[in-house]
Amino acid sequence: MLIPMLEQLRVARDTGRPRTRPDTVRGDKAYSSRAIRSHLRGRGIKAVIPEPRDQQGHRKRRGSRGGRPVDLDAEDYRNRNVIERRFCHTKQWRGLATRYDKLATVYRAAVLIHTAVAWTKALSDTTQARSRLSDGVAR
User: pTM of the predicted model, to two decimals?
Assistant: First the structure.
């Protein structure tokens, strides 16, 4: 589902056409397939996806015909957990976890509402922390 999702990706800009190609795609080992890597390489997208042990073994067994090992930016890969934690937090919301909604649009609306609520909470925490720091009170 990664390739169809990337084809639907649209990120709005202030002026001009929306962006349709991210700079980097971070993923876990499940996204390490030849098709996904070649698609990303063809579009000029950096893949931060580790290679599973079995694929490493297959590549090494083939010798020089197996190709080069994948390049993994370990520092960038560490940032993937931020996204994973947000997905886990979103799935804990009862309306989304139970999936009572019959229509995909209603389910998507619930995801967007939960995202807006979480975002406003994060903003309010940030502004409260700033006001405490400006008052000279650090807790």
Answer: 0.61
